């Protein structure tokens, strides 16, 4: 009997958490069904498969739900062994990459970017400083593991997903990238890869969406 292999990804196209999972699937050459969710009107599948956090992305593999983007990427790596490895076999290198991916997660870098996008004045300045401090620590920590062109994987996917959002945010705010040079050159380098180009193809749309998000947030703030 043929082995069942049903792969379903529930996601949000503009979310870095979804993007990094798509990058992992594309690296491995896995075919999957994709369902776009509406963050403000989630389908019953989200409540069924991620009752604890009710967040996306959610991978459902042969009926089994796997949640949390970093957990999903590791699952993909361990399940589809045929494609290139996402995490290196070397235990030290693997821990280094996990440490920095977790650092990005725990320091709420993406969430701070969203706050910067939606605020103005003093509040925005405070969030920009917080964001830049975190990026400074990150740049210092990862400078020696700057992308290895032959081994794109785990940390590249996390960096690429979060910092593509950062680049779009900067475009909306009209600021330049000179304060975060290492991460910008990392993302620029990754953007040349076919798998990244394909996954990030809607990024031009992201800038337009973020402009609307910002306008709405500022309008709501001025009305209160
Ligand atoms: N730690 C989670 C974060 C996922 C997350 O925050 N997803 C957002 C989209 S960017 C979401 O589903 N938000 C829905 C909500 O907050 O209700 C992961 O890595 O997967």
TrEMBL record:
One of its GO terms (molecular function) is glutathione transferase activity. The keyword Transferase applies. It is found in: Cytoplasm, Cytosol. One of its GO terms (cellular component) is cytosol. It catalyses: RX + glutathione = an S-substituted glutathione + a halide anion + H(+). Residues 5-84 form the GST N-terminal domain. Its main location: cytoplasm. CDD domains: GST_C_Tau, GST_N_Tau. One of its GO terms (biological process) is glutathione metabolic process. InterPro entries: Glutathione-S-Trfase_C-like, Glutathione-S-Trfase_C_sf, Glutathione_S-Trfase, Glutathione_S-Trfase_N, GST_C_Tau, Omega/Tau-like, Thioredoxin-like_sf. Pfam families: GST_N. Gene3D superfamilies: 1.20.1050.10, Glutaredoxin. It comes from the Eukaryota. Its EC number is 2.5.1.18. Residues 90-220 form the GST C-terminal domain. Keywords: Cytoplasm, Detoxification, Transferase. SUPFAM superfamilies: GST C-terminal domain-like, Thioredoxin-like. Is involved in the conjugation of reduced glutathione to a wide number of exogenous and endogenous hydrophobic electrophiles. Belongs to the GST superfamily. Tau family. This is Glutathione S-transferase.
